[in-house]
Amino acid sequence: MSEITTPEGANSQLGQCLKAARQARGLTLKQVAERTGMALSTLSKVENGLMSLTYDKLLQLTSGLKMEIAELFNPAVAAPVQGRPVTARRSISRAGQGQVITTKFYTYTYQCTDLIGKRMVPIVAEVRARSLEEFGPLLRHGGEEYFLVTSGRVAVHTEFYAPEILGEGDGIYLDSTMGHAYLNAGEAPSAKGVCLCTSEAPDLYDQLRQIASRDVAPLGNDELPP
């Protein structure tokens, strides 16, 4: 089966929806071509309303972008809302799932890693370090974040404020470009929490993993590679 070339305008909806979905993921046409194995020229013609795609090609495209076919044909899904297109993406994170980075002083489990170009990165954190000497340099990265303590007690150290102690159910919202660190302040061997990091940068997940990987410990049998 091959692509079907049609007059300009006949496939404008498909092209507009593809462009909106691509831009929402922070991808160039070349990156879409690399992820899907489709020709760059074909994708360019589709975006410009000059070409349609057969069903097998649509499956190839949506599979490579980890999206639903409906996103390419539903104007309501692809229409901009307050200047940003709706992607209708979703990802379910089951208990025990996630990309794990473990060091001697903390374990970060990144959730919903099947989605690319996320502007929010959810992390389940287990904090063991009890001092800044153990933890190392304060963390700094783009965006903002919210940390919610789910068990134990957490000491939050920041660059411009005195340390704060958070108990179970307490949370803190902070500017992530400010140096910060989360330490175990309870009697248990570790404290746990959920951290949500946000940024306009499409590579936020990669940035966070690079920072967290600075002190990676040897992998155990139950850990995933970073």
Automatic annotation (TrEMBL):
Domain (HTH cro/C1-type): residue spans on this chain: 18-72
Keyword entries, A-Z: DNA-binding
SMART domains per UniProt: HTH_XRE
Domain of life of the organism encoding this protein: Bacteria
CDD domains recorded: cupin_XRE_C, HTH_XRE
Cited Pfam families: Cupin_2, HTH_3
UniProt feature coiled coil, ranges: none
One annotated GO biological process: regulation of DNA-templated transcription
Gene3D superfamilies: Jelly Rolls, lambda repressor-like DNA-binding domains
Keyword DNA-binding annotated: yes
GO molecular function, one term: DNA binding
Protein name: Blr4304 protein
Protein's organism: Bradyrhizobium diazoefficiens (strain JCM 10833 / BCRC 13528 / IAM 13628 / NBRC 14792 / USDA 110)
